[in-house]
Design goal:
Layout (H helix, E strand, L loop, with lengths): L1 H15 L31 H13 L3 E11 L2 E12 L8
Antiparallel strand pairs: 1-2
Amino acid sequence: MKTSLLLFTVLLCVSCSSSQPPNYQAYNTSAVPIVTMQYESSVQQMSRNDVISAVLTCQSSGLRAEIVNGKRMINGSITSIPVDVVCLPKMDPYKW
């Protein structure tokens, strides 16, 4: 029992020590990729039937529907248009 314990401690000490120091490299900012935003010049508006069917799909699966709106210039004024419908989990504000 004593030999196995002694052997275990020796192996533990030998495995944890290393002869080489770790190789730390300085943070190179030129290696970081540059991320740019891609914008679409035109956004397609969802029809009323598309929005209704997407909302019903979310509700039938037990989720709440969140409509993503875009802005469009119509007759000289900026108007919100539905672009996408996202299904999100229902949140009860009284459970906090």
